[in-house]
């Protein structure tokens, strides 16, 4: 019996010393080195087996510690990931519920401001309210004043090497989060494959990582890219055809039609990034690398990425210029229809038109770049204005475009009213002439036949008026068709942008909440969206309407005159090529078959050769010498009317070049 009792006591003491040696270990998590205890025990409450594994997860809460959302946030986070270990307690000690409540009251508004919810594994109800748990001494008075429950202090047997050091700098604004150690909110506080970005002038925000899904699914992105590139290709063809047709005959497209060519030029360059998106990757066109984490994310300022700047300039600059040229086009129509301005009068202000249409977008683009509002777009993988900050898109895109649409629509309405008035005047004049001709024809039946030709001028003027009415009606139909095809798409684009602006914040919150709650551990690998939060149909409609204007810009050029112009161009090119081939073959034939080649080399200077060796285009002409009238100088001059011996007649020579 004695030996049995001795063995039990020995095993008990050995087990206590063994647990002390192998269960408790010094804290090595960098964020938790300055807390009021220095030993921990693994596994922790989240079942992390090692401190290295726990440090990776705990360090993602560093931004909350840096902003001082609560004075006890560091202590609370460390008590969860590195619970206190002591030889007197067989398990790790964590914070009391009162600490969790105090931290939640201070940090939850910050998380909600960033579109996140309180983590599920930090629910305060899961922490002990009484018993063996830890509460910082500074929290005792605050808790005692608001609750009658007993507050448990940190055990007195703990070794406290240092007091808590300051957890943040001089900034107390919760939005001013500084990532001093380069660890963003990408894992826990920026779920859904996003990363925290802090800029110098702006508040920080979460940005989706490159090639990751946040608002849109991968399938919808591929469909949008294919859709945009297809319409961009058609826009390039149509606008390019208009530009080449203009180069063939510049006099044909004079004011008030000249802005149509400038509109085609703007849409040619506007369509380029949509077409190049198929050949270039999202990484190059819309992403940049975070210097602190080294991760690639959608561009937040766009300055450091050359591909992002190029796609932004092509879309924003030439898109803005297209709206201005459309407004100038409607203004020219208005001045022609209402004020009776001719082409020379409008051409006088051409320099002002170009200065406004190309200068204003340049100033606006400089402002956008200076404000660092060039952001990557997730759907198409390109850069544009205010993708993350919707206010920038409102003031720099929506309002200017809407203003130009209103002004242009007013010009179109006033122009059509004037055209209808002119058409009615022509018809009244035509009917008046018809009545006068009919009355004169009835009165002339009683007159001699010699006076009957007096009604010929009236009939001629009636025919001219009829032609004017017909041409005016054709112009109105063509003008109306082009106006509808240009105005309606522009209105749809602005409406779609307004829809995105009004709903962007709610879509972002829904995507963030879904990404937060989709997996218990916030595993971002499994937290992709099952469906796109913005309606993809609306985005596809916006893409279509923005590119269809480039296609319709060529409608003004598509006419029988353009077909005839291109036909003559190809005929001239074909004839020019045939002429060059014939001349080249004739020259080679003379060089190889002429018997005079060797004679010319061995002849003395000034010797022109015999009659057989002379060029068929050179004939002798005798001109009297000034000093000696009796002598004659034997000269050879070119005779353009001479032909080679191979051409028997004039018709043979002319037909050889056709």
UniProtKB/TrEMBL annotation:
SMART domains membership: FRI (SM00063), Frizzled (SM01330)
Domain FZ: 19-136
Keyword Transmembrane: yes
Record field: transmembrane: 224-248, 260-280, 316-337, 349-374, 394-420, 479-500, 540-558
Protein keywords: Developmental protein, Disulfide bond, Membrane, Receptor, Signal, Transmembrane, Transmembrane helix
KW Signal (keyword) present: yes
Cell compartment(s), UniProt: Membrane
Paired cysteines (S-S): 24-85, 32-78, 69-107, 100-124
Cross-referenced InterPro entries: Frizzled/SFRP (IPR015526), Frizzled/Smoothened_7TM (IPR000539), Frizzled_dom (IPR020067), Frizzled_dom_sf (IPR036790), GPCR_2-like_7TM (IPR017981)
Topology in membrane: Multi-pass membrane protein
UniProt-recorded Gene Ontology molecular function terms: transmembrane signaling receptor activity; Wnt-protein binding
GO cellular component, one term: extracellular space
GO BP annotation list: canonical Wnt signaling pathway; non-canonical Wnt signaling pathway
Signal peptide: 1-15
Domain G-protein coupled receptors family 2 profile: 224-565
Similarity comment: Belongs to the G-protein coupled receptor Fz/Smo family.
UniProt name for this protein: Frizzled-10
Classification of source organism: Eukaryota, Metazoa, Ecdysozoa, Arthropoda, Crustacea
Name of the gene this protein is made from: FZD10
